[in-house]
Amino acid sequence: MSEAEYLGGRLLLAMPGMGDPRFDHAVIAMCVHDEHGALGIGVGHVREGITLHGLLEDVGIDPGLAPDMPVLNGGPVETARGFVLHSDDWGGEGSVTVNGLCCLSASLDILRAIAEGRGPSRFVIALGYAGWGGGQLEGEMRRHGWYAAQGRPEILFETPTGRRWTQAWKREGIDPAHLVGQTGSA
Fold this sequence. Notes:
It contains five helices and ten strands; from the N terminus they run ββββαββββαβαβαα.
């Protein structure tokens, strides 16, 4: 793939019938994608039983001014590792800009900043990530497992979690009710 074809900054949308129940109706914010592999954070499903306040308390941070919002299921890899996708109005050590979609931070500094009311204006927090080895994601896309939608910050930050998959399809001009779970060949 050429650099222009890599998917960093895009939203991966799981196709119906992709065959992996962990990714049913998944929306993955693609953070890194190159010849060595890919890493994305799931933003389409809530991690049951944990909120931001609980997460902050678990890592020894007083929730303070942080909203008590749901924590997302970022993916099946390193499910105890936290990630914050956020607006570019906050930057700390290790923050990475993701091609116009958002910034990615994974340090306790951003959690402290959020709790103290000096964090980014918009953010989502997830535990875990989705990862692919070199060429693996491309193979899954050839088998019609994923659709690469435009990375739209309004889908990430303004659309309710449970509606992100449907709304991302609609913003692409596709009615997801017309998608089928099987592909064919002529």
